[in-house]
Amino acid sequence: MDAGVARRSAGAGRRLNRDWRAPALSGSKRAMRATIRDVAARAGVSIKTVSRVLNDERYVRADTRERVQAAMAALSFHPSLAARSLGGRRSFQIGLICDNPNPYYLHELQGGIRDRAAEQGVRLISQPYDRGAEGLLADIMALVDQTHVDGLILTPPVTDRPDVLAMLEARAVDVVRVQPGADVERAPSAAIDNVAAAQAMTARLIALGHRRVGLVTGPPVFAVSAERQEGYARALGDAGVNFDPALVRAGDFGFEAGALAAAELIPMGVTAIFATSDAMAAGVLAEAHRRGLTLPGDLSVAGFDDSALASSVWPPLTTVRQPLRQLGREAADLLLGGEGERRRILPFEIVERASTAAR
Domain 93-192+325-346 class? Predict the structure, then answer.
C-alpha cells in the first residue's frame, strides 16, 4: 500500500469513529447511513432536540417536531437505541427472565411481549436461567446493570422469588409478574385464574361420568401447580367425590413425566386423567397406547395450554386454552404503559376434542 492510499484509509477510519457511521455499498458508490447529527443539521436544531423528538417528549414545539420528523424521513434515518437514550432516562429495552421446561409456553409468551414492545420501538432481551443456580440474583443484577433495561417481566417460578423481588425493588427497577401465586399486589401482574380453569376441566370430566379422576400436576416450585390442584379438589368436592391424594402425581410439565404418572395411575383404576400441561397429557396418551387401552373408551385424557401438540396427538386433546401470547402482550403493556393498573386476569377456555368421552 503506497503512502497516499494509507493516508486516505486512516482518514476514513477517523471519520467512522467521529460520526458513528457504518459504510455500506450501493451499486458502485459508497453510501453512508444518516446519523442523529445529520438529522439535527438538516432540521436546524440541536442533537438534544432530536433526542427529545425520538423519545416523544412533550415539551417540543409542534413545528420543531414536524421539522425533525421531516428531516428523518428525507434522510431515511432509523434511530439506534443509543441515539434514542441520549436523554439518559430510557434504554428502550426490556428484559424477560424465564425458566420453563415447556418450549411452547416460552415461544408464545415471548411472541406476545415482542409484538407489544415493537409497537413502541422497544427491544426485548430474553434471559433464560436455571432456578436451581446459586448465581441467579447476580445474573439478574448484571443484566440490569449492563443493559440498563427499562423494566423486567418475571415468569414462574422466579415471579414468586422474594429475594429477586426485594433486590429489584431496592434498585427501583420496574417489574411486571406473570402468573404470580403469592403477594400478588406487590407488583403489576398478568395471569389467568388457574384455580377456576382446573376446576372447570375437572368438573367437565365428572359431568361425563368419571368419578375416579387422576391428576398430574407440575413441579411444586411453580405456584400454578398448587393452584391447579386446588381447582381439581374443589370440583371433586362440589360433586361430592372424596379427594384421594393417591390419585395425584407431581410431574415437571414434560412428556416423560406424564407417561410415568400414567404408568402409576392406570393400574389404580382411574377412568380419566387430567394432566396440567399438554406435554404431560401427551405422555399419558402414549402410555395408554402402549398398554393397549382404547382412547377415550377405556381412559379419558385432558391437558392444559392448548399448544400445537394438543391437536396433533391421537386422539386430539381436550384441554384448557390459556391465551399465552395475549398474556405476554398484556404483561408488556403493563410494563410500557399500564399506569396505575395492578392486575389483569385473562379468560381461559375449555376446548373439547376426541380424547374425552362419557364414562
Answer: alpha beta
